[in-house]
Write a structure and sequence with these properties.
The protein is an alpha/beta fold and about 290 residues long. About 30% of the residues lie in helices and about 30% in strands. It folds into three domains: about 1-90 and about 170-260, P-loop containing nucleotide triphosphate hydrolases (Rossmann fold, 3-Layer(aba) Sandwich), CATH 3.40.50.300; about 110-165; about 265-290, no CATH class. The protein contains nine helices and 13 strands.
Length: about 290
Amino acid sequence: MTTKSSIYIECSGLFKIYKAADLEVVALRGLELTVNRGEIIAIVGASGSGKSTLLNILAGYDAPSAGTIKVGNYDLLQMTNREVVEYRRHEVGFIWQETSRNLFPYLSALENVELPMVISGAPGPERRKRALELLDVVGLAGRAGHKPGQLSGGEQQRVAIAVGLSNEPPLLLADEPTGELDDETGVEVLALLNKVNVDLGTTIIIVTHDPAIATSVGRAVAIRDGKTSTETTREVSFERRLGGDATGTEEFLLVDSAGSVQIPREMLDELRINRRVRVGVKDGKVTLESGD
């Protein structure tokens, strides 16, 4: 059961508008989303749906145009430049899809994990100790001295997860973390993210096109046309293989604070509903009837 005290991320009426010359593109259209502290969820949607825009805003790489978005004690719409730097250093870790964007090629795995702590001013012995512990957590303690070019794609993503966790952020964001990996390696990376979520209590949001990932976490939220449209919950065992069966699967349409809901186009077509609809309540159920 969700309580106000357990909510860690809260988005309400979130808009993002990009302007280029005289053209305006609305990427987010009043999006609403809540994520509990310590939860791991997937955000899914077609290209252009707004999911990457949401992730960039949560990462502090972009600023929302309007609405409310809070992460822990941070109000992302009202942050000063100094608060943005603090937020990105200490509150959130980020994993890019392209393994080459996560790591510096001329640094060893250990040095890459240490780097965020160097920037944050952590003492040398302390950051070395934590970096070695994180490499052990991701199963690469024996590869600490290897540079990215000496590691496989899966090993690079494991190091990237350790880099994302180096400053002990309560939030870890992953943008298509298995997009450049084969299925078997993708299984290993997803299992590691689940392990991090369970062992460290890190809140994790994974943006993905991969339906196998979406079916391997407890909650998947779909974004369509800049708004959250559906939510699927599952009973998931962390020992499951990627894309395996889940029990207790339920899919829900989401109703926002204004009472809006995105009804699938195929349902509207079946009911021959176009622009107008009659809404009623019968036997405790909401009914829709074409008004055209």
